[in-house]
Amino acid sequence: MARSNKIVVPDAKQSLDSFKMEVANSLNVNLKQGYNGDISAKEAGSIGGNMVKRMITYAENNMNGNMMK
User: Fold this and answer.
1) Listed residue (18, 48, 54) closest to 33, CA to CA
2) Which of 6, 20, 57, 66 has the most CB atoms around it within 10 Å of its CB?
3) What angle do CA 40, 46, 47 make, to 5 degrees?
4) How far is CA 63 from CA 12, 15, 42, 51, 56, in A?
């Protein structure tokens, strides 16, 4: 199955990039704009994993009882 990194909401790209940098900084990972092939897979995974964890926490804290359909 082919994977796609298609951006669903183009206006969100800058916010997500900023969020990624914020998470990387909190984990003491030296992330820079553009290519980051010099970081380890473990570091890259910790950035992505922590981004997901924070997004889930945010969603849980902001649920108002309505379920998305």
Assistant:
1) 18
2) 20
3) 95
4) 21, 21, 31, 18, 11
pTM: 0.76
Both tokens of 16, joined, read 């997500």
pLDDT per residue over 52-62, tens digit each?
A: 999 999 999 99
How far apart are alpha carbons 10 and 37 in whole angstroms? Answer: 24
Which tokens is 15 given? 């916010």
Q: Is 37 helix (H, G, I), strand (E, B) or coil?
A: coil
Closest listed residue to residue 29, CA positions, set 53, 50, 54: 50
